[in-house]
Amino acid sequence: MSEYQHYQFSVDEPLTDGQLAEIRALTTRARLTRHSFVNTYDWGDFKGNARRLVETRYDAHLLRELDYSAADPAVARRRPVPGRRGNVTA
Q: What are the DSSP E strand ranges found in 1-90?
């Protein structure tokens, strides 16, 4: 993977111990609290389904992605990747 991904989820009502365990099973590196989930990937990929987490557990989601696969930054600027802007789902 040659991409940066930053995931944030938040919820108003605190998650239960069982819900936290389900989410922790998706990633061991996330900063996880009863009200938020934050993780950044420089390698690998998020194993969960962000849309499903918003549908079932969280109230809001922010995803920021950056593709840095092109060695020449000028080439990367000429090759925008559709849908790779920061997306907010609420």
A: 3-10, 31-32, 36-41, 60-67, 87-89
